[in-house]
Amino acid sequence: MRDPLSVLTEAFTAFLFGKVETTRLPVRTSTGQAQAVYLPTAAPGLGDSGVIIGREVYSGKGYIYDPFQLYGQQLPAPHWLVLGESGNGKSALEKTYVLRQLRFRDRQVVVLDAQGEDGVGEWNLIAEELGITPIRLDPAAALNDGIRLNPLDPSITTTGQLALLRTIIEVAMGHGLDERSGFALKVAHAYVNQTITDRQPVLTDIVEQLRHPEPESAAAMNVDIDDVRAWGLDVALVLDRLVDGDLRGMFDGPTTVGIDLDAPLIVFDLSHIDRNSIAMPILMAIVGVWLEHTWIRPDRKKRIFLVEEAWHIINSPFVAQLFQRLLKFGRRLGLSFVAVVHHLSDVVDGAAAREAAAILKMASTRTIYAQKADEARATGRVLGLPRWAVEIIPTLTPGIAVWDVNGNVQVVKHLVTEAERPLVYTDRAMTESSSSLPEDVQAAEWEAEQRAALIERQMNESSQSTVA
């Protein structure tokens, strides 16, 4: 029974002030607050030092990435693999990443630009904006005092020269050199280096020596000189393609004087080379080895080597072996290798599956844009992605990708500033789809649905692991 005095007090208060009722406000929360409450949904970031990529789709947090900042603690290697179908934003990501990296004074970037339109490479606009002239490798231009890179450049070690010559020949032939052909090449190379001292040796000298070997070379091995000539004939025919064939002019003379290897951005324009021909992997091998011996130096600079159409490297066992050495060597000297590939099946199902696996293993960062469902499943198996990420890949819209940074997996939306947009979107269709994305209601709804689904999934997984 209530106290009569309390009842009288309430009645008097109500008479004077009217009846007072309190209502409980509805509970509202945000994704960020939910992640703070449910810690399993708040995945750790990559730190706050480096290059801004965009924002995480599910948490809304800014996404910052820099292999040089993360190397050693969160990354065992600074190398990066970018995958995805055309038209989903790979090129925009590469270009904005490079532009943002170049804001740091200790960064330097080399790009192998294998794509282009209207006679110039895709990176031509960015090069012009930075006041840089691309190094355009073009067989037609090379005949008229164009750019030349000499595989026998004295800046390359003797061992490096011989390894490069073997790779050129093996790529062109499609198989490894046998012992006799390898011996003929070794003898010719040694003789040319020993006897030509007043100028740079060139490929023509090697071809001439293979066709007309010295008697001393045969005598040293106690074989007939005609045998040595026969052993080197196929090798001479392959190298002759670089001297008098469809690739003549680019590699059969001294290296062009004046190539600026100290510029912040160095662009090799390979767009005049048929990307589906055997010339492309040969070209990439020569450029890669030449850069290894002339560009990478033991200083304090951080270097980025970005290769478009990188399947030409990864899918050739001979070229891949050269680049494996470069990747291992580069980690000690601050080199981050960025390989851009359309389909992982282009490399893992090829003749260089073992070499491809070794290079993929070195790439501790993997960025995957939209792929078809079967391709996404294959990619997930090779890269060891979690199931939820594999399921999301086919539904990704342009500009959004799955990022796997040494096991830290996030869905990230790449953001492009208005100043960057005219430089990075060189394709009209890509520009229109990308520029409409931020205001697109369907994209916003998709993000919200995916965010909610991920939070629910992670909470369920967390509950199950707690119960277990």
Automatic annotation (TrEMBL):
Coiled-coil region(s): none
PANTHER family the UniProt entry points to: SLR6007 PROTEIN (PTHR30121:SF6), UNCHARACTERIZED PROTEIN YJGR-RELATED (PTHR30121)
The protein, known as: ATP/GTP-binding protein
